[in-house]
Each structure stands twice: as C-alpha cells, then as structure tokens.
Write the structure tokens for this entry.
Amino acid sequence: MSRENDGFEFHPTRLQQFLDVAYRIINVFVRWDRLPTLLAAVNFTVFRDRLRAYNLHHTGYGVLTPDKWKPGYERWRSADGSYNCLAHPRMGMAGTRFGRNVPLAEGVPETGDALLEPSPRLISRELLARHEFIPATKLNLLGAAWIQFEIHNWFSHGTPETENEFKIPLPPGDDWPEKFNGCMHIQRTRLDPTDREAWLGATPTFCNFNSHWWDGGQIYGHDHPTQMKIRSKRDGKIKFDRDMLPEDLPERPGIDFTGFNDNWWIGLSALHTMFAREHNTICDGLKLNYPEWDDEELFQRARLINGALIAKIHTVEWTPGILGHPALEFGMHAQWSGVPYRWMKLVLGGNSEIAHGIIGSETAQHSAPYAMTEEFTAVYRMHPLLPDTVQIRSLNPRKASKTLDFVDVQGSKTRALMKTHGFADVLYSLGIANPGAMRIRNYPNFLRRFRKDVERSHSHKTEQPLLDMAAIDIMRDRERGVPRYNRFRELVGKKRVTSFEEITSIPGIAQKMREIYKDVDRVDLLVGLLSEDLPEGFGFSDTAFRVFILMASRRLKSDRFFTDDFRPEIYTEFGLDWIRNNAMKSVLLRHFPELGPALEGVNNSFSPWNVVA
Amino acid sequence: MAIKITIPGIIRLAWLSDPDEVIAANDSGVVQRSLSGLGGLVQRSIAAKLAVFRTPDGDIWPAFRNRGDPLRRTRQSDLEQALSHTRVLLKRVAPETGALATYIRSGSINRPPEIVVQQMVGRLFFPDYAASEESYDAARALQTWVSGGPIKSYLLKSSGALERALDLIVTLARGDTSCAHATAIAMHNIVDTIERMRRLVKTSDNLEKLGAQDAIASTLHAPKQVVRETRDGGRVCGAYLGARTLVILRLEAARRQKPEADIEFFAKGWNQCPAHAIVPALLVDIWKKAKAGKS
C-alpha cells in the first residue's frame, strides 16, 4: 500500500494492462499524433492510465477538519468544496494543499545559487519577450479569457509573501526601474502555515485558496460568506446591479463583485456576467418546474447545473478549440458523453468510462486523493495568450473601432469600458480577435512591466510592486519544486532530450537556449513548453498535454457530482436536459441575441467568429 | 577519477572513490539521496530496496532524507545535541562498554558482542532499550537486504522476514527513525570496529602498545559505500554525471586515501553524522577499559 497516498491505489483492468503493453510497442514505431483517429484516441486513454498509476501524489490535506456537515450537502456542493467525497470530507476543499504529479522526492526545489540560475530576468528578456505578436489563428480571444475564467475556479496560491523576496541580480544595462541594490525583487509564494507530515521529505507544500473542484467557484465563491454576498436571496438568484454585476468594495473600484475577481479585465467581466445571467435563467426554469423550492434549494441546484454546463463547455468546446487534432475532438467528446459507436459500447461494456463517458460513471480517485497539483498549475501558465492591445469593435458598422492597450481594459478601468461599449460589443470584439500563440518570444510585454492597481482602504493606500510576470512565472515553478523541462518530460512518460535542437526547430531559439542554459537539463519548464515543436493542430505542447490528459479527466472522475451523483435526483430532469442541450453558443445567443450574425455557421464558439461590421 | 558504466536500459553508474570527489559529490546539489528508480533496471531494483525504509505511517529513515528536508535538519541537530552529552551517555552504557572491553581483552563475553553493541547503541536513545538475538537477527536481515544479492533479498522478502525485521526494529525504537537507523544499519560499523579491535589485541601486544586514538584510527572504518542519484545531469569536481546516474560513493576507499577528511562521519558536510562525537568517545572508552583490565 502506498503510505503517502492515503491508501489510494490504481487498479488497472486486464484490458488496460493489455493496451499498455500494446501501445508501448506501437509507440516505438508511431507517435500517437500520427495514428488514425480512433487508435490515437485510445492512445490517450493508455497515457492517462499510466499517469493515473504513477503521477498522482498526495501531499497531505494541511487543514485538520472541515466545517460542520450541513443538511443539503448530500445533494449539493458545499461552498468550500468539503464533503464532495463523503468518506474523506477534506478532499478538495478550499485551503487544502496542492498535490503533485511527480513523486514527492522529484518535487524538491533547488537550493542556493542553482535556484536563481540562469537569471529569470535574463530569460524574460532574451527568450520570452514578445518581439512581434504571434497570433493563435484557430482560437479567439474569448478562448484566452475563458481559460483565465476557469483557472480562477480551480486554483489560487493566494497573495504572495511580502518579505524575504528572491533577489535577482540585474545585469548591467538592464533598464528595470525598481532596482534594490542592483537586484529585482520577486515575492515568494505564500507559505503553507499548517504542520508538515514526516513523509513529505524536502517537498514544499502550498495551499490552494480556492476549492479544487470544478464547481463554478469563480462565480459562486470558495467560502460561505462570499457566497452569501453574491446572492440576491430571492428565488436563488445572483445579485445584479441593473444589467451588470454589482461593483466590488470602494477600495477596489471598477471591478465587478463575484466569487473570485483577481486580475480583472473585460474578458472576465463579460464571462462572469454572462454565466451569472445563465444562473438566474436556470433559477427561473427550476422555479417553474419546482415552485415549492425555497431560495437556498433553487440557488444550489442552479449552481450545480451551471457549473456542469461550464465544465461541459470546457471539455467539448474549449479544449478541442485549442488542441485542434481530430483524435482530441473525438477523445474529449468521448470523455464527456462516451463514444458514438454502439459496437464499441457493447464490446467495452456498461461500466466502461471510455464507452459511456466519465459523466455518470463511478467516482474514482485512482492513486491519490483528489487535489489540483503544482504541475497542473505550471502547465496552465498561459500568459502568451494575451495580446498587448485589444481592438474594441462594434456590431454596429457605423461605429468606429478603437484599439486600446491591454492595461487600459483591465483592473479599475474594466467596468467603465463595459458600460461604454456594452457586453455584446465586447464579446464580439473578443470573438473575432486572435489571442497570442503559446510560443516562445510571445510573452505579452505589458505583463513584463506591470503594476496592479493601488489597493485603497479607509486609512491608506498600498502601492503595488512593479512586476515582470515572465520572470515571476519562471521563479514560481522553481520555488515550488516543479521539475525543469527535461526531467518533467521524463516524469510524464516522455523521453528526455539530449540537445536543444531536439526541443525546438524555431530558428535561433536552440542557439539562444544554449547560450543561456549551457546544459539542456537546466531548461526551465515554461521555456521548454513554449519552444517545443507541436503536434499538428495543437495550440500548446505535447508535454503539457500529458498533464492535461490526466488532470482534465480527473476533475470530472473524482467529483461525485459529475459521476455517482450526476443523476436526476440531484440535478433534476430539467437540469440534465439543460446541460445536455446547451453549449457556449446557445448561452451567448440566449443572453446576447444580437451576436447571431457573428456566430452564424461557427461550430466552436472559441474559434474566430464572423466579422459582421 | 570517476569510473562510469552505462548499459542503456540496464544501468548508468558512476563510482567515486577519490576523497575530494566523494566530498564534492556529497555536497553537490546535483547528487541526491533519494532514488527514483529511473534510468535502468538496476536503479529500479536498488530504489525498490531502499524504499522499504519507512515507518508504517510513512516517516522516512534519516539516511534517506534529502538535503533540503526541514525535518532532517531539525532532527539532525536535535539528535546531535542529545548525543553531545558524552559523559552522561558513557555512564549510561557503562555495562555494555565494560562487556565489550572484556571481549576485546580476553575474547570472552556473556552475550554475543553484536547484541551488546546493538543494546549499547539503543540505550543511547532509550535507557531501557533491550537488544536480543531476535533484534540482532532483524538488524542483520536489514543489512542483508541492503547489501545482499538478489536471491537473498528475494528470500527475505518472500518469507516475510524483511517485514518482520522492520516491524521489530521500529517497535524497539518506539517509532524513532534515528534510533531505528542506528540499531539496524549504523551499528554494524561499530560491530566491525569491535571485531577489528579484538583481532588487534588477539595477535600481538597491541593493547599495551597502542593508545586509544591510535587503536581507533586503525580500526574505525567508514561504511564501504553509499548510494546516491543524479536527478539531472551536472558536473561534480570536473566530471560530468548524466541524468539518473546511480552514484556510488566509495567511502572507505576515500577515507583510506585521506583519513584526516573524517569521511566516515562526513564531518563538516550537510549530512554530518549526529553520532560523530559519541561513537569515537564510546570506542575510546571501550579501549581504555580493555587496557585497564576493567569491566
């Protein structure tokens, strides 16, 4: 029994064992992405099963006890994610620790000088800085907003520590304005204050301030007090201020009040507002069907339904949108609702999650208690998706377009912009624009010299430090002990590379990496992921994709509300129909019917829309 | 000069026996104590062997804790502090040191010397620690598990002897992994030293001629070797060690070349043995008692 993993073990079936051996042989000759669609999709399940067996590692929960059980938790989600797993009520709750996708001894940060070498600032300048905007042509900017919207559901390391910063020496000629004795300061990730278990060894632990579950926490909050604040307390609905979400507290002007509103910009405002409206529409539907239900029952059931719809959109629309490979399209639909072939369902049997989809299948944690992981966080560093400027265009052809710097569509400027242009025009602008491609030398420059809004309170205002987010992204992986690129590859089941040229064929990058890193084993994970040559149609690297295969399905498979409890008694027949019959496009058109022409003929709402004006 | 062998899929190995290389490798961030089992079948087999050194609740034995492990640091300094009260501890284990002194002088002893050594080591942690034939057999089983060949290891595991040995050692150590390590692994080095002292006395008049320090210098050896691993490739003392190389630090060979480096205790290293003061003090005491004819 695995002592670290709280007794959880993965038990492969005979079919899984057979496929594992068969695909080890097949993959010697053919890479997964060059196989026929069906075989490639089966290849994913083989990868996933290997990862389920070897790449889930528990770090302990940290928190000792969940809040008290409340009636209703058996049929709806608690605010903080506790009691999702009834046998292990702390699992996945807000405040518990991030898990790991690598063995604990591999998740240990380097010490001394090695931790700071090569300089993250040098990497930011020489390898990450955007020289010219490289667009991701198959995706729209709404897709970039979407992933941030989702990340705010899954994880947050909290605000960084304000003391004991990393001191990054700046080379002569570096024009970084906030120098402290010739160094750039980077704040450390907030420390885990809970007691460490003896078996953790040298692996650092960090807490997830959000609930780990796919529960719509970005809209509904990750604790009960926040959840109560967003509610109108009538008919289960979310509070609105006319057609907008209410404004946050006076110290955070220009920002909507919602479950999680850090790093706010017009993309998040549009999505949060739309799905809050969707929640209220679902409440109306539920009230019609169940007039006897009170505010709490309506709110919680609508929350379940809305959260599942968001998960479905992410699974069958956003993911195939960014990973445009036929096997992926097939695989993600199969993950949600099963394979489309009756013969395959018959062969694989009634209990097979491959045949019938994860949704409604039996809950399973595989080899560790469910938790978001540091490695999953690391592969979700997707800042290159953001452009440095945003063009606001109107559905009305007579209105002129306006190009704004990204810093002018975020933070305290957000609400004013939404009021001026309206939700439909903002969504249209995001729908027709391309995000940046997830490639090296495409990191938005505004984020490499970015200062958040001043935090105001009654007595004082707090200046925020100037941030080089590219350098911070590099340091975050290092300080959390996420392995560097080559070892990361090895640990997720890929071969190590032996030269820089094996990582990338992008002109000049291998040479630049050699100059900076000297040794291929030193390449930072983010740099490797952004440089790696991509499978056909992919919007990000195959190495990152391995972690996605594991964790994207795990978010569903470990959650009883997507598995054992995905049933009418919990969701209602109305709710299951709502989830089945809706998609991103129907949500967009329900709340913004004027987007009709822009979306006509568009199969995936995260691919570029029609330009109508 | 490191000797390196690579057979793809089977093993990637580097032996270091030069004292400077051994010390540099031990201090290097490139080389880790924990073994991943990656890199070849031999690595996998050795990693699987060492993975058993955990208590039932998962606590890792001290010799397998990595450099950056905060608990290792705390426990190491706590233990070092506890073992620094040499006078008190020598008084506590006087019956055992007396018996061992008699054994060295005359070769006669009421209980086998290895059991007496185990009890002496155990009593440094717990005054009422009692060793027995069973506890020593358990320690020997664990030593065989670590250094024995595949057939012996298979028999130990399949017969359940390994699990019984671990349970007994940890139970006697009351869950204290430092005590478990000392009474199961580290004690063998003291047993070997006592046997060398006995041989020294048996064959000539060394007991009269040699002072305690000289006797210890010629009988206290370092463990033959310890195993480490490189997670990523890197340079150690000019030699490039590839990723997932099993690094064998040949401590005794290195100590012989440079005795003043205190390689047997990794003196001044991050992993300095917490018993670096008490073990020589015990051996000095035993030799002096043997010399004085006291028991």
User: Anything to note?
Assistant: The longest strand of chain A covers residues 166-169.
